[in-house]
TrEMBL record:
PROSITE patterns: PROKAR_LIPOPROTEIN
Protein name, UniProt field: DUF3748 domain-containing protein
InterPro entries documented for this protein: 6-blade_b-propeller_TolB-like, DUF3748
One Pfam family from the record: DUF3748
Keywords in alphabetical order: Signal
SUPFAM superfamilies on file: DPP6 N-terminal domain-like (SSF82171)
Leader peptide range in chain numbering: 1-29
Renumbered residue ranges of the record's region Disordered: 162-191
Organism annotation: Maribellus luteus
Top-level taxon in the UniProt lineage: Bacteria
Amino acid sequence: MIYLRTYGRLNPAYMLTLLMALVMVACHPAGSEKHNKQIFMKEKQLSFSAKNHALDNNDNFSPDDRFLCYDTRGTVLNFDLANCKSIEKIEITSGEETVLWAPESVTGEQAAPGVAAVSYHPFDDKVIFIHGPLLEEVAERGYYGIRNRSGVEVSADGKGSVTKVDMRDGATDRPTIPGAQRGGTHRHEYTRDGNRIGFTYDDFLQQDYDRTIGYMMPHPKAPAGYTHYFAVLVKPKKKGSSKAGEIEKAFGDSWVDAAGKIRAFVGQVRSENGVDFQNDLFVAEIPDSVDITSADSGDAENYPEPPQGIVVRRLTHDGGVSGIVRGSFDGRQIAFLMNDKNGVAQVNTIDVLGDDPARQVTNFESDAAFLRWHPNDEWIFSVVKGNIAATCVRAGKDFGQTVLLTNDQQLRSQLVVSRNGKMLAYNIDVPGATETGEEKAFMQIFVMEVEMEKMNAAIQ
């Protein structure tokens, strides 16, 4: 059976694409998992303007769940974040869009400043995102790059009140200023209590080191003019120098608990044969006794050192871990993607203490992606072949039961869950036209109401 939904205003190009998709569905079964149950929930297209609305799988819902924040990457020239021009929000009830930050910029293969990857604060009306060098800083710092950016907060009321979060200090003739970074922070994530910010980090002064992870927090010793003190959580081994079991790259990270005492991440480690690499799940623990100012910011010849007392633990040893890992709301479980025996990325969970082995939750035929917990910690959402799947993870007979909430040819991505758990939001590319009349698909925001009673009834 074919299910049709109303997405709002449809232009002729979109109608043609929809008809083509229906023909494909008629000729081929929908790309769903046949063994999983299917229910259908109300899906609605929220944004319509001729630009991209990239959620980027971040914390995009406002504290009151009235708005979604996004960036406009890919609207101008290419998808390089250097050419992303604005940070915006959209009201869910009305679809009204508001530009929160759009600095003066230059476009090209080398561009600046570049603003992207936005998240809302958990309870304050502000957002945080990556920000490259302002145009007046380009002569000194160069153009946007992954090793040339920092975090900036902007008020979400549309008035453009700016706060500088982490200082970037690229000096080579002296030690790096304590509490400053020397490259680029990215994908900033607040803890649920708002007191810490996690991120990925790429160093500029020591480029023989790959990406790693870190955290920052407000501190009286933060560099002058900035609110937060920076530190790496993991010092990776230099590229190509690791021994078996040692980490050369850390990424795909997320907070496990509300207070930011545990950050889970994917570690690229040297395999036991001493030649190959594999990706496994790790956690970095920040005990209460840790003083962030005990971190060493390094200098031109020395990579930064984590604060004293950080504990890194490895939770898996079989490789195949991918994506962004996610902590449950109670801070006891970590959900992550790991390949099964057929090489398919499945949703897995593991106790944060590592006392029990990982449990494979799903049995999809195709790779899962964009996994997110429901706030009740009983369900995990993911995207499989463009469709939304909800998998039960509560203990008992229902564990691992999966319900498909959509079953069509649309390619959904960048899934996020509202703070109250009553709504999902995600991106779908929708054909449209630019101001000059050029046909182009734009990344639009769609939302879906979560009907928990239907989900629970479907697995009984």
